[in-house]
Design goal:
Strand order of the largest sheet: 2-1-15-14-13-12
Structural class: alpha+beta
CATH topology: Beta-lactamase
Shape: globular
Number of strands: 15
CATH class: Alpha Beta
Distance between the termini: 12 Å
Length: about 350
Amino acid sequence: MEAQQLPQNYEKKIDSLIGTEFGNQNDPGGVFLVAKNGKPIYRKAFGKANLELAVNMTPENVFQIGSMTKQFTAVAILLLEQQGKLNVHDPVSKYIKDYPGGDKITIHHLLTHTSGIKDFTRMKSLSSIAQKEMKPEEMVSFFKNEPVDFTPGEKFDYNNSGYVVLGYIIELISGDTYENFIQKNIFDQAGMSDSYYASDRKVIHKRAYGYHKKEKGFVNKTVISFSVPFSSGSLMSTVDDMLKWQQALNQNKIVNPDESQKAFQKYKLNNNEEFTYGYGWHLKEINGVPDREHGGSVFGFKSMGVYIPKEDIYVIGFSNCDCHSPTEITRNIAKITQTSLKK
């Protein structure tokens, strides 16, 4: 599908849709990309990447992607399974010997948010460690002795702690840091040269700065130590790199089809009830067509990605203020793109 086959008003439609939320050029903004068959058909930036320096956003800006990090963690686990180093049905206790109830919680439970482990983001004591440099082991120790919310496999309840445990398991098995493992096995393989494990100290070329909105206007984002969200939310990327990621998955560059299929299928709870999450992706529908989607939210940033396999449509949206959400806009862009390309 070449760009010229798009209806003439397609770009205008998308512009005005995004403009409802991201229309003020003097506010923090965002970047949106739409691809069909791996080729961008829409790619635009809105607002400012840095308010203090009055720098305009460009499509090349680097954003924190928050919980979209979970896709990378899940695929890293599947890669270790492909290498014969683990099985998704292994109990957590096989790798973390002293994990409370770890003989009943499997890697599969962690991947699908069905473990029942206490989500550290809901713990009141989180503020006591938010700015501390935490080792993965220390992060796991922070929540592992909390009472569980339910028996493993009993229900689906979105959970950041489970993905922190997965990151720690990746380190224990690979003998490498999570950051290095993702860099070598995913970013480098997919050609994602503008993706990083987040840092506020490193000089990151084309970084978009993150903001909160207060009554009196915008303020710089609250500082957290990225070792806290760790493998549940600490990666940074660009829309172009995220398209490369989607392409790498489609072309089985990282894991083989048998493994990647595990990420994109729905699973059942103990009572046989199906839920709409695979490994690192929500599995929903757009206009009745199955999709894979996930958002992210971390201080100062929001992200959302939607992929429709049947039509090979990928839409990704980033925002550098947690006051602007790209979630519904990204889904609506996917809907418009579907109908526009059918005509």
